[in-house]
Design goal:
The chain has strands at 15-18, 31-34, 36-39, 45-48, 51-52, 55-58, 68-71, 77-79. It is mostly beta strands and 80 residues long. A hairpin with a 2-residue loop joins strand 4 and strand 5 (51-52). The protein is rod-shaped.
Length: 80
């Protein structure tokens, strides 16, 4: 006797996120950082090291690094 079974493996393309170039602002100024996403499958979830949502309006008083992780509907993610 013999038994066989097939399994299909689907490869999901992960999203790609880009925050763009480094930003320089003067003290007390504000800049909006936007996570631009390509690929993957919507809807996307955005998790920043300081906040949430696709865009962040920031007014740092010291030079600060902002990091965003984007996760798509397939659970694939990218960081910038």
């Amino acid at each position: 006797c013999e038994l066989s079974k097939q399994v299909r493996v689907i490869i999901n393309t992960p999203p790609r996120v880009n925050l763009g170039q480094n930003q320089e602002i003067c003290l007390r100024d504000t800049v909006t950082l936007t996570a631009n996403v390509t690929g993957g499958r919507a809807p996307y979830q955005f998790a920043w090291n300081r906040g949430s949502g696709q865009s962040q309006r920031v007014s740092p008083v010291l030079s600060t690094t902002y990091i965003v992780t984007v996760t798509d509907a397939n659970g694939c993610s990218d960081v910038d």
